[in-house]
Amino acid sequence: MDQYGGETNIEQLELTLYLFVVLYAPSLALEAVAGIPLSASILTTGIVCTFYTSLGGLKAVIWTDVFQSVIMVAGLITVVIVGSIEVGGFDQVWQINKKYNRLNFFDFNPDPKVRNTFWTLTLGGAFTAMPVWTVSQTAVQRFLAIRSFKDARRAVWMNVPGLIFIVTLCCLDGLVIFAVYADCDLGVQKKITSNDQTLPYFVINKLGHLRGVPGMFTACLYAGALSTASSALNAMALVTLEDIVKKRVPDITDANAAKLCKVIALSFGVIVIGGAFLVKYVGTMVLQLAYSIFGICGGPLLGIFFLGMFVPRANSKGAYFGVFTGAALTTWVFIGSVLYPPDKYPGQRSVQGCDFYIDAVRANRTFPNGTYNHESARVLDKWGDGLINNNYQGHSAAIADFYSMSYLWFSGLSVLTSFTIGIIMSLVLETKEDKERVIDPKLLFPLKEWLLSFLPGHTFKWDIEEEEEKMTDAEGMPIHQDELKINWDDAPPVDPGDKEEKHEMADTKL
Fold first, then answer.
1. What is the pLDDT of residues 370-405, one digit of tens each?
2. Residues 239-243: contacts with CB within 8 Å, 24+ apart?
3. What is the pLDDT of residue 381?
4. Where is the region Disordered (predicted)?
5. Which helix (H) or strand (E) is 348 found in, with range?
6. 229: enclosing H helix or E strand
7. Are strands 387-389 and 348-350 parallel, antiparallel or unpaired?
8. What is the per-residue pLDDT for 352?
9. Which secondary-structure segment (H or E) carries 349?
10. Which segment, 47-61, 200-214, 257-271, is predicted with the most confidence on average?
11. How far apart are CA 138 and CA 142, in angstroms?
């Protein structure tokens, strides 16, 4: 953003909307697990998180994130182990999911309306995750807290195995829970009011007899919510302080800035608590809603960063047009997807193991004409063989098909729109001052040199890396100016004549 000479608050908007979902999701689950009212859970979670974030700062946030991550992983592993035992082993889990078409890893259907395909998960998922790991304030704040660029890059690579491990555990949890309830769909039984309550229902239904497990799961839910919310609140407060307050009050003292930062975090916490109550009216799953927010806000932000990195003639006017156009288009598509919900996942569900279906089948066998039990006849007429097929049928209106775009493509759509509109408007609205503006080369990505590095005999190193290497010692520690000391023992001998001449020159100046 330095290249454009302006400021933007789209990151605060993204984090605020995302925190609405973050507070709502565990509250919805706790309603199913512990019977805590949704409103009370939202208030409790929001107040606790806002309190310790305001008092502790970044250090408290990082250490609580570490502890909460351990709790989260423990809860996910417990669900996999106990659920697999319930079904009869993980082999049985795998076979059940295969039977109901839940293991189609290589679906190369290019249709963007299909929710999960190979292309949607790889390309669409990459664009969805990229803003979170590259330009979001929560990530950048942690990178800047690391002592060097090299260590920051090492931290990212070290994070990859852990992230893959956690995502894999979440997928395994989904497979296990589906296998447990494969013969009797929870939604049909009215056991849950939202698919987001499936996991907490499983914990109470299958793990409730194990002392401490429901409590650990509740802690797992809170850990995930608090770690994310605290990081976002801290980042939002710092961005507001640095990009808004200090630009208008540059002489603010550090002590007053620290106090003001806590007040800002507290204010954002109040806003987030209020917004979390509105999420239930959106009518979509939590994960889909979160990724849609990344697309609406994070996608345009990534698009204008690409614009600044790869287009030297980009300017602030083009960037603003690009970011607002990308956000507006993606918001329009998201609202359309809420009004015209996309078709469900094309896999089978079953009620063959439900008590009401089993009773109906038994009654029909005893009285084939179905006259003995009208309820049994009605059940069999409605459910047939007990298998429910979710097939894509499309919509009557062409615009509704556009709204059916998979939520994982939202970010890619907004990135492409912001980048393209940004280039066009930068060229159209370019002024003489824009043409004469000198851009720091470190703000531009040397694309040509990077492409040439793939050829034999060519190497690539960005200027920022070379500059950092000059300012670090052999162990990679940063060298500050006040640490640069002269070793007089290794200095060359000084000619006495030169020394006397310098003293005379000094006396003359005095």
1. 444 555 555 555 555 556 555 544 455 567 777 888
2. 239/9, 239/11, 239/12, 239/137, 240/12, 240/264, 240/268, 243/7, 243/9
3. 57
4. 482-510
5. strand 348-350
6. helix 213-240
7. antiparallel
8. 76
9. strand 348-350
10. 257-271
11. 7
3-state secondary structure labels for all residues of 157-218: HHHHHHHHHHHHHHHHHHHHHHHHCCCCCHHHHCCCCCHHHHHHHHHHHHHCCCCCHHHHHH
Find, among 402, 340, 414, 412, the residue nearest to 119 by Cα. Answer: 412
Q: Residue 389, SS3?
A: strand
DSSP characters for 425-475?
A: HHHHT--HHHHH----GGGS--HHHHHHTTSTT-----HHHHHHHHTB-TT
3-class secondary structure, 116: coil
Question: Angle at Cα 330 formed by Cα 324 and Cα 334, nearest 5°?
Answer: 140
Q: What are the tens digits of pLDDT across the range 15-61?
A: 888 888 888 887 877 777 677 788 888 888 888 878 767 766 556 66
Token output for 266: 């507290």
Among residues 494, 128, 440, the alpha carbon closest in space to that of 294 is found at: 128
Which residues have a Cβ under 8 Å from the Cβ of 333 and sit 6 or more positions away? 402, 403, 405, 410, 413
The secondary structure of 310-326 as a DSSP string is: H-TT--HHHHHHHHHHH
Nearest residue to 326 (alpha-carbon basis) of 406, 409, 418, 412: 418
Query: What CA–CA distance (Å, rounded) separates 506 from 299?
Result: 62
Sequence-ordered list of residues with C-beta below 8 angstroms from that of 135, at least 6 positions apart, any chain: 11, 298, 301, 302, 305
pLDDT at site 85: 92
Tell me what pLDDT residue 205 has. 84
